[in-house]
Structure prediction request, 228 residues.
Amino acid sequence: MRIVAFNSSHHKGGDTATLVEKLLAGARSVGVETEHVRLADHRIGFCTNCLTCYQDPSADIGACSLKDDVRTLLAKVRQADGVVLASPLHSGFVNGTMTTFLERLTFTLCRPGATMMGLRGCPVPRLTEKARACAAVINAGMIPPGLRQYCDLATPWLKDGAPMMFNGEWVGELYAAAMQAESLSDEECHRGFLLKRLTDEQLRQAFDLGVALAKAALAGPKPYAPPS
Prediction:
């Protein structure tokens, strides 16, 4: 049993990495193996929309015209029983590295085959040999949880896309923002990002999410079911 976390932050040892490590520690406490993959350490080219993957519907993993490290990362997904997507929040969304990575996954890990709202040819998972538990870690800046709905477009996108790509079930997410944002002084507000520190509660939540993710993977998550 294995949980793999894909972290798109470029900061080694930063807040996103710290949250991921705490989540994986929670998963290990339940007895599963874990792996922390830093996407910044891998060559991930931009999707060129050549549609090579789209035109390869019979393969377990769709072909790709780009020769970089994505194939290796797809193999890690295939081996995983649980997948975590972790990203800092940039302009209300996942950062460019995570966006580029997930664009490359859409039709390499899915094939056209579903009918949604009457539209035929929508994506369905290729890796149907098992279902995977899915979760996300969003490391936000100065927007506190009470205002999250106005700036976090990342989590709903991941919540919709991850189960489809990984043939799995959504377990949960962590949104970690600067808890002191509303109490900064006039001087401090100009450097609020630099003052942010993770709280003990956020670290506990990350650990608990890891426990929940591992338990879901062990129990057997539900496979993806396209919306009707």
Q: What stands out?
A: Residues 15 and 198 are 7 Å apart (CA to CA).
